[in-house]
Amino acid sequence: MTDPLHNLALDGPRLDPLAGNTARQLVVLLHGYGADGTDLIELGHAWQDLLPEAVFVAPNAPEPLPFEAFGGRQWFALAQRSLREYRIGAEAAQAILDRFLNTELRRYSLDDTSLALVGFSQGTMMALQCGLRRRFSPAAIVGFSGLLPGADCLGNVKTSCPILIVHGTEDDVVPCYHADAAHTALTKAGIACDLHKLTGLPHSIDERGLALGGQFLKDQFFGAS
């Protein structure tokens, strides 16, 4: 049976570069479960001054929530919220995100060295699942309040781009121990991974996270100052 998502083209809100007419970097913002691209495009507004030559795009996930009448989207369905479900779901959704990334890179005449993936919650799962398995390594992955799908089976990881994980200690949706598990697994796999656990933060991104994420992207694209 044909996958109904096979030929679906993702799209969502985007921000053109502040400086000039040519994009030098592509930052793809992957929203969480039940949101859509408008939820994360605000990160682009926050980081444009740091990355004035970057285009920011926040694709809407491919599936509508089965019970949501107001436009919420999902990268994959969540029923049991188990580690097995996260791995299987992220693997199933990887191909459509990969195609979107390839299309966007061609659109702006860029390659993976100019690509960064930024995710929140379920979007972090997709950023890690897809970004670690690209044929060529992206410049950076930033994951907020998420987890690493298949943390115990990283044998098919193809790239080793630097990763930043930011997680609130008071997250009651995706508990903070998932950040520790991801950091441990990625480090064992030889992937550079910075972990910041933000005291008192629930399942969200605050000014501390914005500052950490923006500086990390700038450092990976241009070198640490």
Descriptive report:
The chain is an alpha/beta fold. Helices cover 33% and strands 17% of the residues. The protein contains 5 helices and 9 strands; from the N terminus they run E-E-H-E-E-E-H-E-H-E-E-H-E-H. The protein has helices at 37-47, 83-107, 122-131, 177-188, 207-222, and strands at 14-15, 25-30, 54-57, 63-64, 73-74, 115-120, 140-144, 163-168, 193-198. The strands form 2 sheets. A 7-stranded mixed β-sheet has the order 1-3-2-6-7-8-9, sandwiched between helices. A two-stranded antiparallel ribbon has the order 4-5. Strand 4 (63-64) and strand 5 form a beta hairpin. Helix 2 (83-107) packs across helix 3. The longest helix has 25 residues, at 83-107.
Summarize the structure.
This protein is an alpha/beta fold and 225 residues long. Helices cover 33% and strands 17% of the residues.
Overall mean pLDDT score? 92
Helix content: 25-40%
| Order of secondary-structure elements | EEHEEEHEHEEHEH
Q: Poorly predicted ranges (pLDDT <50, ≥5 residues)? A: none
**Shape, principal axes of CA atoms:** globular
Compute the gyration radius: what is it? 16 Å
Portion in beta strands: 15-25%
Q: What's the N-to-C terminus distance?
A: 52 Å
The strand count comes to: 9
The major pleated sheet works out as: 7 strands, mixed
The largest beta-sheet arranges its strands as 1-3-2-6-7-8-9
Tally of DSSP helical segments: 5
From the helix content, strand content and strand pairing, which structural class follows?
alpha/beta
Keywords:
225 residues, two-stranded antiparallel ribbon, alpha/beta, 7-stranded mixed sheet
